[in-house]
Amino acid sequence: MHSPDTIFRMFVAGKMTPFYERYYPGMLMYATRLLGDELEWMADDCVQDAVMDAFQKRRTFKTPDQWRAHILACIRNKAVSALRRLSAMRNYTAERSNNGESMEGDASRAMIEHEMLDALYAAIEDLPAEYRTLLRMSFEEGLKNAEIAQRLGVAEITVKKRKAKMLEMLRDKLGGNVDMVMLTFVLSDMIHA
């Protein structure tokens, strides 16, 4: 199996097979989670569009972390756009009361969710490399704690403790910018996986 640095260099050189073998399944799972049950059928399109965008810009990336962050941000943006289109379609087709409160509530909620995700991604980028790697293995690659422990050469309890520490660091970085209950909900399944 190729290292992340090797996969990055091969991607930049135009050799995509190792990327698809190692990262594509995890990115597909990430897109599926973002899109939810109703739009999960669009996950492959979101990932493919993000990969194509990264491929076209492949010579501009300086590090593998920058490259992966770009792909994940593209997937997230594509998913958010799809969710917004779905919401807009529902707004136009559903019977609404004339007071407009539902539309304003939907728009406000979407804006808050978008701001929360932006803050979360910025906080993730500020994590030390060790914790970003742990996050990548959990979400992008979809590895269980035992698999991560084996790959890192540490005990499974160490992985759990590092995940808990990472969550604590994210909470500290985000402060009052996002709802801590939501952050805990989003990341807690990762800690116990």
Structure description:
The chain is mainly alpha-helical. 78% of the residues lie in helices and 0% in strands. The chain contains 10 helices and no strands. Helix 4 (43-56) packs across helix 5 (64-93). The longest helix has 30 residues, at 64-93. The chain is globular and about 50 Å long.
Task: Lay out the secondary structure.
Elements: H1 4-12, H2 17-22, H3 24-39, H4 43-56, H5 64-93, H6 101-125, H7 129-139, H8 145-152, H9 156-174, H10 180-191
Helix pairs in contact: 3-4, 3-5, 4-5, 5-6, 8-9, 9-10
Helix and strand sequence: HHHHHHHHHH
Mean pLDDT over the residues: 80
Tell me the span between the first and last alpha carbons.
23 Å
The secondary-structure class comes to mainly alpha
Number of strands: 0
Number of helices: 10
Instruction: Bin the helical content.
Output: over 70%
Instruction: Tell me, briefly, the overall form.
Output: globular
What fraction of the residues are assigned to beta strands by DSSP?
under 5%
Unreliably modeled segments: 95-99, 177-181, 188-193
Rg is: 18 Å
Q: How would you sum up the major sheet?
A: none
Q: Care to give the gist of this entry?
A:
With 193 residues, the protein is an all-alpha fold.
Provide the descriptors you would attach to this structure in a database record:
single chain; 193 residues; 78% helix; globular
